[in-house]
Automatic annotation (TrEMBL):
Reaction(s) this enzyme catalyzes, per UniProt: L-aspartate 4-semialdehyde + pyruvate = (2S,4S)-4-hydroxy-2,3,4,5-tetrahydrodipicolinate + H2O + H(+)
Pathway(s) per entry: Amino-acid biosynthesis; L-lysine biosynthesis via DAP pathway; (S)-tetrahydrodipicolinate from L-aspartate: step 3/4
Self-association and partners: Homotetramer; dimer of dimers.
Active site positions: 133, 161
Name assigned to this protein: 4-hydroxy-tetrahydrodipicolinate synthase
Location of the protein in the cell: Cytoplasm
Binding site for pyruvate: 45, 203
Source species: Photobacterium swingsii
Pfam short name (any one): DHDPS
Major enzyme class: lyase
NCBIfam families named in the record: dapA
Amino acid sequence: MFSGSMVALVTPMDEAGEVDYTSLANLVEYHIAAGTDAIVSVGTTGESATLTVDEHVKVVVKTIELANGRIPVIAGTGANATHEAITFSKLFIGTGVAGCLSVTPYYNKPTQEGLYLHYKAIAEATDLPQILYNVPGRTAVDLLPETVARLAKIDNIVGIKDATADLDRVQQIRELCGEDFIQLSGDDATGLEFVERGGHGVISVTANVAAADMAKMFKLAREGQFEAAREINARLMSLHKNLFVESNPIPVKWAAHKLGLIELGELRLPLTVLSESAQPKVVEALQESGVLQ
């Protein structure tokens, strides 16, 4: 369930900044048709930081309803207050969600012991599968492999999304946690090599606009056809990089709008639409990847 090309789905919005559920329905169908392996709803790319609690829950639940069992949906449930992350996790009990993705507490800069106790408390509050999410570039805290190993002993902590781009960690975590502990890349540019080194898949920004290519690439990787997978990855590399020319999800929402996947590329403040100076870079990347003709 937690492997292959998994999309960190954008949350489409209208001109007033309200969630565009018509575009959301279109996105779900797009990913099912393209062969995406799972949807992560309202993670960082889904603008979890600026949705209200009610909106957050509604978007995830609506995504589950739209998927209707055809594709697993994982809920973003992270927060920098442990009690808030527990609340989010509990709100998804009984919704049909496949699991929870919980980012390390941002801004607080907890110790490794604090991180351990944070995730332990979340896991003990619900039976839902929990995926750890380590992204030091956004949170200013690094969940170290030794702490991951402690957490992996808790039954419903089943894996980690690692966005450090430190490929050596794949082997470190496998040795510490065993082969059954799920390792997912959070970095598109190194995602394929992550899997070549023993990872299970990627939670991808690129998949928002190149879903079929990403799905095919990781299917090939699962089959051991890495040479063919690398050919696709090389074509997508400019996209992997230029979708971060400004803070995610600014470029990818603009790209999704450019491709007609969502009605508008609107975001909520403090994020703003892609600057005119950056737009040609994203267009060029879309063209080089073959996504935009």
